Amino acid sequence: MARRGSAQASAQLGLELSPAAAAVQRRCGVDEAGRGPLAGPVFAAAVVLNPKRPIRGLADSKILTAKRREELYEQICERALAWHIAQASVEEIDTLNILHATMLAMQRAVQGLAASGCTPDLVQVDGNRCPQVPYPVEAVVKGDALVKSISAASILAKVARDRELLTLHAMFPQYGFDSHVGYGTPQHLAALAEFGATPHHRRSFAPVREALSRTPATMAAMLAAGEPTSSLATLPALSPEADSAW
Q1: Binding site listing for a divalent metal cation
Q2: Binding site per annotation, positions
Q3: Is the Cα dihedral 118, 121, 127, 132 positive or negative?
């Protein structure tokens, strides 16, 4: 298995018009969604695009609107040579840690794609770390903005994860998963302190542990003081941007 550093990957294969990239027939782009949130699985997707059926507008999923991501999701599923979405569960995140669980989700995504009959020539992964896969693999820093197949993977993973969080919102509407999609906002931390954790919260994450340590009486005192989120502000609130850097 060949593995190159991210700097070399960016120089040689980060741009799709480079000679080395042009020689690749089945480039598999891989990306994840959901490393930073306090709840829900971490998702990963693997995509091999079809050069005969191009998709316009592929980009890093974080800069696209939700509506545009949904549109591109359908086009990717329809036009790609192969694609697969996988996940690692909350239990796996709490057992393995989020980095290893993310690598596991990526590994499953590539394995699922290959099982469909499309064996990749090269697996390119967004970021600076690679999962263990039986194919040439390399990390590409900012790959979701440089490599179209990674952009496509980022879109599939993001849409799949957002849909999962909407399902959680229907089950637990008091937490507001439809607005913060699991990230550690003051609203989410306050709901954790008031209602406790669901089975879908990542107890290995410090904000979940600390929010759960706050008793209902403590929360009531905060509300009575008129500053329901003031002390919660000391907890690190993760954002979608946390998913873009290892």
Answers
A1: 31-32, 126
A2: 31-32, 126
A3: positive
